[in-house]
């Protein structure tokens, strides 16, 4: 059903809800199986069907669609990257975000309210000027603000007695937020409408092999054969790939937490990030202040974090905008991040024929969802990467051609 004002009205008054997608039984075989019904898996299935004409596809999800990080993130979207390998990819994602809701005919509340990165030293301002120039050379919007420019946008920040005074900021006006779970639902609905089978409550427990090649998956709902199998399971990448024989991937799983306050009147104009600590904040349409900071710092598969990081994040918040101390914290939660060794993702074939990998998104994969799906679909459909995502190779950790956006070296817990 195509959604319009009329169909919404009809649905609102109808005694029965039309399901947003079907609940099919798994078929014995598909042309393509995508493991993982998160944002990236669903987007891949959607673009496989829509852009590359591959509709004989199943998405196999161990829980319910969107139960992973796609529904747990702080919803920030942006393309303010520095390095050549990253800027064109994230800008492609931003362009897809800009047309997404019309494209999949679903309200994902994409809101380009701006992303402002604050700087607190001359050196940091120089680094932002460099990043802004790199962005503009690639045709991406970037504006360097001085302290007065920041004050005009966010007068509530601590300008007067801060330990790390605000010197200015790098603003990307086209950045902003999107409603995370609606993104998953929109892609799921769009894929389902094009014939993709969305199979929930089916955990992949092993891979089917034919000689050296991967020929499908073993799941808790039976074996399903496939010509090509794509893995997009984010924080569970090491676990799932170990079943295919890859027990040493350049990935560590870490917990990242997020926090939301009680609903408040509109105060935060867009997304603001603190440059002297790790803290980022925006305000949801319901009024909650949505914020987060660093990963917990130890490897874990638990979808919950500890109190030391809560304290650290809240301290950074208090240093940046002391008024936050008056707000009540409503909820916190955690998700498992697939932290790669250079902080950049992997979209590549694997050495096992028929098996493709999409991983290493660290805590920046939500903004990448549209481009990640598009490029993973391209790779699977054509068995060749698109030039825009060609740098995200798995073997870059062996050859040394890493994409170290943050300049942190090979320490996943620092990216
Ligand atoms: C607290 C938090 C804040 C974040 N903030 C941001 C942000 O502001 N901006 C941003 O860009 N990114 C952010 N991220 C990161 C972003 O959410 C992730 O990088 C991205 O969602 C990962 O891709 P995904 O959506 O496909 O993952 P997921 O939604 O985790 O999808 C993976 C799916 O695979 C399934 N799966 C796992 N194992 C199996 C199996 N054996 N069989 C079948 N299915 C399986 C899981 O159940 C899951 O549904 C944040 C993450 C968290 C946790």
Automatic annotation (TrEMBL):
Tell me where it mainly resides. Answer: cytoplasm
Entry-linked InterPro entries: FAD-dep_OxRdtase (IPR006076), FAD/NAD-bd_sf (IPR036188), Rhodanese-like_dom (IPR001763), SoxB (IPR006278)
Task: Write the signal peptide boundaries.
Answer: none
Reactions catalysed: sarcosine + (6S)-5,6,7,8-tetrahydrofolate + O2 = (6R)-5,10-methylene-5,6,7,8-tetrahydrofolate + glycine + H2O2; sarcosine + O2 + H2O = formaldehyde + glycine + H2O2
UniProt family annotation: Belongs to the SoxB family.
A molecular function annotated in GO for this UniProt entry is: sarcosine oxidase activity
Report the enzyme's class at the first EC level: oxidoreductase
Residue span(s) of domain Rhodanese: 31-76
User: NCBIfam families, from UniProt?
Assistant: soxB (TIGR01373)
Cofactor(s) the record lists:
FAD; FMN
Where in or outside the cell? Cytoplasm
Gene Ontology cellular-component terms listed = cytoplasm
Q: What is this protein called?
A: Sarcosine oxidase subunit beta
Its GO biological process terms?
A: tetrahydrofolate metabolic process
Q: What is its EC number?
A: 1.5.3.24
Which keywords appear in this protein's UniProt record, sorted alphabetically?
Cytoplasm, FAD, Flavoprotein, FMN, Nucleotide-binding, Oxidoreductase
**PANTHER family cross-referenced by the UniProt entry:** FAD-DEPENDENT OXIDOREDUCTASE DOMAIN-CONTAINING PROTEIN 1, SARCOSINE DEHYDROGENASE-RELATED
